[in-house]
Structure formats: structure tokens, C-alpha cells
Specification:
mainly beta, Jelly Rolls, 2 domains, seven-stranded mixed β-sheet, six-stranded antiparallel β-sheet, 23 strands, 10% helix, RmlC_Cupin_sf, Cupin_2, Cupin domain-containing protein
Length: 322
């Protein structure tokens, strides 16, 4: 693989292209400043304006959300895995039908394997622009977003309509759903009963890993975060490892599955037979199966990285609170 071919598989943080109209709450006050990024795969964006950096998926999708202080992402659910780690800032995650069942504050580097089948939301509670990176299960990311009814109702007051086809129509731009496409129906009271209301005590021990705990666990070998023998529950179609300076293999390695490297702290040197390049916090590198390569911190100081590897596990079995 040539350096140019490898570079085409790396999405640099500085090259990320945001979409500010990705979802139905894009005009709703409190959510109207958020930015959505689709890095690998189309994700779950509802807007044709969303730019996709790498179209081909390795069995999962990679995305990100950027928000200024006080901005929130509205209550929604997914049919498959949704895993976040905080790249920048301080974030409050909260969940439940009305967002009151439970919550916790995530700091930089923390990772959250959100239980499937619950309504969840998040907001930037820090003092600066924040960024969270997302891993979504499945090649098609589970077929879109399931919104809490009040989110769809509120959006109509600000000119946005979500069609039953999963596409967003902006009344401010004169857009309406085409003939034969009705608006997305609201979930009924009976359907809403199927969405659990786990408490904070239910969720945190099984679904949250703190950055500094992972740094300690990775002192001699990669820390298993999600997957077989992982710190967090379930196997959602991908596994996640946390690597720090002392847990990097000394020799080049090859994987039979797709691998995605996502630096958290420090600068990393990626080397393969065709060349070498640097990976920096916020970059995303898609390594193809069978490519021999090695990783090493390229500077002194704190260094950490999340590694996501495809598995043959079903993509919808994450975070169930049994």
C-alpha cells in the first residue's frame, strides 16, 4: 500500500466536514448549533447535505458530534450499538422517556457503551466547544434514529418534518415530503412501554469506563473495553481496545478483520511496508485486513488510543441490562 493509498484511508481531524442540519432537531432552540460528522459509513444522518468521508463500512460506522457549551442532542434511540468516547470537553449523558431516568458526566477519554432500546441524549456541559466520537453497529447503522415523540412534535414548530422514509424536509427551504410519503408517525403509548428506564446505578457499572481506569489497566497490555472479556457488557459487532504507551506491541502485527485506529492523546507513528505516517488526536485511520503494520508513540508524554476491530457478532446485541 502506497502512502497516498493509506492517506485516503485516514480522515484527519482538521479535514472533518460538519453538517448542521443532520437531524430533525436542527432548528430547535438548544440543539440548533450542533454539528454532525460521518467519518466512516453513512451513519444515521437524515439529511442529504451530510458529507461522508469514507463510504465503505467495515461492519460498523464511525461518526462524531461537535457542540458548543449548552448545546444538546435530543432524546432518541437506536436499534444497534452506539458507543461514544469523549475527545474534547465535558458532557452530560442522560436517558429515559423524558430524559430523567438516569445521567452521568463524562470527562475526556471516558467511553460509554449505551444500552440499546433506551432513549438517550447528551449535552456539552463544559466551557468550550466539545467533540465526542461515535461507533455505530452494523453497516447500515441500524436503519436510522427512533425519536422520542416530543422531539418530532417540537421540530414542526421550527419548520422541520421527518418523512416516514427517514428523510428530513426543511420548510424554511420550501421542502415538503413528496406525494405518497407521510410524516414519520409518533410512537404510541403502547410502543413506548417497550423502552426501558434504567437508573444511573443500573447503567454506570456495566456500560461506562473511565479514562484513567483504562490508562491503569493498559500499563502492560491493551485494555479490553468491549468484546470477549471486555470491561463493558456485550459484543455489538465490533470490539474496542484501549492502548497506551506501555501496551503497544513491540513487533508489527496483522489482523484478519478491519481495524480502525482513533488516537485520544499524543502523537502516534503508523508504519507499514509502504511507508509511515503520523496519527494525531481526532484522526481516524481505517486499516484493511491482512496489512502488516506497527504503532508507536512518536513523542514523549501521555499517549492513548482507541482501537476498534470488526467481529462476527450480531450488531444489535449491545448494552442490554439483563
Amino acid at each position: 500500500m502506497t502512502p497516498a493509498e493509506m492517506e485516503s484511508r485516514i480522515v484527519r481531524y482538521g479535514d472533518l466536514r460538519p453538517c448542521k442540519t443532520a437531524f430533525i432537531d436542527a432548528h430547535t432552540p438548544g440543539s440548533n448549533q450542533k454539528e454532525n460528522f460521518t467519518i466512516i459509513g453513512g451513519g444515521v444522518s437524515e439529511s442529504p447535505d451530510q458529507h461522508v468521508h469514507i463510504v465503505d463500512t467495515p461492519g460498523f460506522n464511525i461518526g462524531a458530534a461537535g457542540q458548543p457549551p449548552g448545546c444538546r442532542n435530543s432524546l432518541h434511540s437506536h436499534r444497534t450499538a452506539e458507543v461514544f468516547f469523549v475527545l474534547k470537553g465535558r458532557w452530560r449523558f442522560f436517558w429515559g422517556r423524558w430524559g430523567t431516568a438516569g445521567e452521568f458526566i463524562a470527562e475526556e477519554g471516558d467511553i460509554f457503551n449505551i444500552p440499546t432500546g433506551i432513549f438517550r441524549a447528551f449535552e456539552n456541559v463544559g466551557t468550550d466547544y466539545g467533540m465526542i466520537m461515535a461507533i455505530l453497529g452494523g453497516d447500515d447503522a441500524g436503519g436510522g434514529v427512533i425519536w422520542a415523540p416530543q422531539v418530532i412534535t417540537d421540530a414542526k414548530d421550527y419548520g422541520l418534518v421527518l418523512g416516514k422514509n427517514g428523510k428530513l424536509y426543511d420548510g424554511k427551504k420550501g421542502q415538503t415530503p413528496p406525494e405518497g410519503v407521510p410524516p414519520m408517525p409518533l410512537l404510541t403509548d403502547e410502543e413506548l412501554k417497550a423502552f426501558p428506564e434504567p437508573t444511573t446505578a443500573d447503567v454506570i457499572p456495566h456500560c461506562v469506563a473511565r479514562y484513567w481506569d483504562l490508562m491503569a489497566l493498559s500499563d502492560r497490555q491493551p485494555a479490553k473495553v468491549i468484546g470477549a472479556n471486555g470491561k463493558l457488557r456485550d459484543r455489538p459487532g465490533f470490539e474496542v481496545d484501549f492502548l497506551s504507551r506501555n501496551s503497544i506491541p513491540d513487533t508489527p502485527y496483522t489482523l484478519a478483520k478491519h481495524e480502525v485506529l482513533m488516537p485520544m492523546r499524543g502523537h502516534w507513528r503508523l508504519t507499514w511496508s509502504g511507508g509511515t505516517t503520523s496519527l494525531n488526536p481526532g484522526d481516524t485511520a481505517a486499516i484493511p485486513p491482512g496489512l502488516e503494520h506497527s504503532l508507536a508513540p512518536s513523542m514523549s508524554g501521555e499517549a492513548s488510543l482507541y482501537r476498534v476491530v470488526a467481529t462476527d457478532d450480531p450488531a444489535g446485541l449491545t448494552g442490554r441490562l439483563l
